[in-house]
Design brief:
With about 425 residues, the protein is mainly alpha-helical. It has a domain of about 260 residues. Helix content is about 70%, strand content about 0%. The chain contains 21 helices and two strands. Strands 1-2 form a two-stranded antiparallel sheet. InterPro entries: Cell_cycle_FtsW-rel_CS (IPR018365), FtsW/RodA (IPR001182), RodA/MrdB (IPR011923). It is found in: Membrane. It is a multi-pass membrane protein. This is Cell wall polymerase. Its main location: membrane.
């Protein structure tokens, strides 16, 4: 039985929609500020032609926002069961597109990850995130991750790792890192905490291997293991082979970091890690972006310099200020107060997404909801982290704030598929 539009509209989570609209609106204001020029006409919409307006990011972002509204309507009209039914079909098409992209895309900023359709440029890696979220949610709806079935875990790992591997092949490492966020959703569905612990420990060892002399690190770990054996004799009898295997793996990781760093990573990637470890190593080269970003944010003080008054923005000290470094504009023009409002907006959105995910009756809906929260949380943390020097610069946009059609469309689709799934859930509850 069909449901009236009025009844369906009541089923939509309008709180989340309101937060989305607020974030997109505030994001546009900051894109406008980042691309504003005092020499521009006072009323460019009436004094400039369409082609002239297309030179401004703020105008193009208006067009992207308008098309995003149309996209929202389409996403909410489609029966939510279609997202479950066609998840694997979309995944297969996305994999083919990712395979083809490096061969047909022209190089832009060192990567072949952008497709050009006339005047429009789209990045398939952005859309791969929500399609992968649909596919893994569809697969997890048919398994029980708590049973620790090795075959199921292997398939799930394949579904998760294939897209980022293809994205790395297009030389877009930053977007590939986002797929690690799916682990948070898997943990919610029953994945062993031991896996997260092992991955966290491995990450800590790799970071320490870059910061601490290798022999010191090996000596410290060996000493800890020896002390553990000294205080617990059962380790000798029951866990000696396993402990020695772990020791060997750790030693291999410590000394393997140099090979990975020098032979696998590209030169610009090595530089970014070096700058993260030692910000003063190349302040006028690779470290320029982060240095100017921190100056811009710090110069805003408590209340900021005021809308359109940012000097770092006006004189283009921070490259990519409309996209990857949009948070600098927030900090410079709106100050500490503005950055806190931005952070609160993101925390509110993430909290609402988790609330919506938890009230789903299906594993598919709940898992997808946690995938949405995990992806947005990763982007939020890494983007802000790299603008203040706590994370390497990897080209991660700030959701709903950064300029760009691919970014806005992908995050809009990611979020409103969840709202469509939730709306139909509430619709079914009202019916019965």
């Amino acid at each position: 039985m069909s449901t009236s539009p009025a009844r369906y509209s009541r089923s939509i989570d309008w709180v989340t929609v309101l937060i989305y609209l607020l974030m997109v609106g505030v994001g546009w204001l900051n894109v406008y500020a980042a691309s504003y020029s005092p020499d521009a006409p006072a009323n460019p919409l009436s004094s400039l032609g369409f082609q002239e307006l297309m030179a401004f990011n703020w105008f193009k972002q208006i067009l992207w926002i308008g098309t995003a509204v149309v996209l929202i309507v389409v996403l909410l009209v489609i029966d939510s069961k279609a997202y479950d039914t066609f998840a694997f079909v979309l995944y297969g098409g996305m994999i083919l597109l990712l395979i083809v992209t490096p061969f047909i895309a022209r190089p832009i900023a060192g990567s072949r990850s952008w497709l050009e359709l006339g005047p429009v440029r789209l990045q398939p890696a952005e859309f791969a995130k929500f399609i992968t979220a649909l596919a893994v949610s569809r697969y997890m709806a048919g398994i029980n991750l708590r049973q620790q079935n090795f075959r199921d875990q292997l398939v799930l790992a394949g579904l998760t790792l294939l897209p980022p591997l293809l994205i790395i092949a297009a030389n877009e490492t930053g977007q590939a890192l986002v797929f690690g966020a799916f682990l948070l959703a898997y943990f919610r569905e029953g994945m062993s905490p031991l896996i997260l612990l092992i991955l966290a420990a491995a990450g800590a060892i790799l970071i320490l291997a870059l910061l601490v002399p290798k022999l010191w690190l090996v000596g410290a770990f060996t000493l800890i293991l020896a002390i553990a054996f000294g205080f617990n004799s059962k380790l000798w009898r029951h866990h000696l082979p396993l402990s020695l295997s772990v020791w060997a793996v750790v030693i291999g990781m410590v000394f393997g970091v140099d090979f990975f760093f020098n032979n696998v990573l590209q030169a610009h990637q090595r530089k970014r890690i070096e700058i993260l470890i030692n910000p003063s190593a190349d302040p006028l080269g690779v470290g320029w972006n982060v240095t100017q970003s921190k100056i811009a944010i710090g110069s805003g003080g408590f209340a900021g310099k005021g809308f359109l008054q940012g000097t770092q923005t006006k004189f283009d000290f921070v490259p990519e200020q409309s996209t990857d470094f949009i948070f600098c504009t927030v900090g410079e023009e709106w100050g500490w107060a503005g950055t806190m409002v931005t952070i609160i907006l993101f925390m509110t959105l993430l909290g609402r997404i988790i609330y919506v995910a938890e009230r789903q009756k299906s594993v598919f809906g709940r898992t997808y909801g946690y995938c949405v929260a995990s992806i947005i949380f990763f982007h939020f943390c890494v983007n802000i982290g790299m603008t203040i020097g706590l994370a390497p610069v990897v080209g991660i946009p700030l959701p709903f704030f950064s300029y760009g059609g691919s970014s806005l469309w992908s995050f809009t689709t990611l979020l409103f598929i969840l709202l469509a799934i939730d709306a139909y859930r509430k619709q079914d509850l009202e019916r019965y």
